[in-house]
Amino acid sequence: MIRNKWLFFISIVLFIIFIFMRIPFPNVYRLGTSGDGILLFRLYFVSDVLYLLFFMITIYLFARSLSKRKVILSIVVIILMAVIPHNVVKGYQYTFANGIDAVSFDPDESSCEIDTIDEDNLEVNCNLVLKNHSSKDVELMLNIYEPLFMQDEVSLLFELEDEEAITLMSRATHQIEINKTITKYYDGFSGYSNSSFNIQNLHIREHNKTRDL
């Protein structure tokens, strides 16, 4: 079945490297991107193009190393490259992770609404879904990145002293409600009055440790 052992060995090494490169931990997604798509090939950044080329080279070398069943085995490898990184994180969070490392965020079930209060102020109401996978409660500080895509500097919605203190009970999914008042022209939010948006990136902090989800 294996026609070229060297190509097979190289493809396996590239496969392992790709898996480690794509493990979404500790930061799940790069800022300014959403979490849709299991392989995350969106071609927003140069690194996305490099990941895609790396992926294609790996599959090509693997297929060339085989003498038969190339299509079926290549599909199996593609599926493994898609599902292993996320399942590695899930397995780690359910077993050894603690503190904010054990926290996951569901962006599909989370959103924010912004309403105008007066000329200077906006009211921000957010509903977030977080899950603590560990066997111990987790206390963290929570913040949200402003909903502007591909900007030069991505800013946080709340100032450091205004971050939301959250306690997540062990092995539980939590619906978190945040209600804040911010100035109308705070960074990128001037164009979001009386509107709603999906949260692309969440920022959590535990002492000096931070994660972007």
Give an account of the 3D structure:
This protein is an alpha+beta fold. It has two domains: about 5-95, no CATH class; about 100-210, Immunoglobulin-like (Sandwich). Helix content is about 30%, strand content about 25%. It contains three helices and nine strands; from the N terminus they run H-H-H-E-E-E-E-E-E-E-E-E. The protein has helices at about 5-20, 45-65, 70-95; strands at about 105, 110-115, 120-130, 140-145, 165-170, 170-185, 195-200, 200-205, 210. The strands form two sheets. Strands 1, 2, 3, 6 and 7 form a five-stranded antiparallel β-sheet that branches. The protein has a four-stranded antiparallel β-sheet with strand order 5-4-8-9, with no helix packed on it. It is elongated and about 70 Å long. The protein starts with a helix and ends with a strand. Mean pLDDT is about 80; it is low at about 30-40 and about 150-155. Keywords: Membrane, Transmembrane, Transmembrane helix.
Low-confidence stretches: 31-38, 149-153
The major β-sheet equals:
5 strands, antiparallel
User: Quick one: CATH class of the largest domain?
Assistant: Mainly Beta
Number of domains: 2
Enumerate how many helices there are, as a single number. Answer: 3
SSE topology string: HHHEEEEEEEEE
Percent in strands = 25-35%
User: Which fold name corresponds to the CATH topology of the largest domain?
Assistant: Immunoglobulin-like
Shape category: elongated
Counted beta strands = 9
Straight-line N-to-C gap: 42 Å
Radius of gyration: 21 Å
The CATH architecture of the largest domain can be named as: Sandwich
Classify the secondary structure makeup into a structural class: alpha+beta
Return the average pLDDT rounded to an integer.
81
Helix content: 25-40%
Keywords: Membrane, Transmembrane, Transmembrane helix
Transmembrane segments: 7-25, 37-62, 71-89
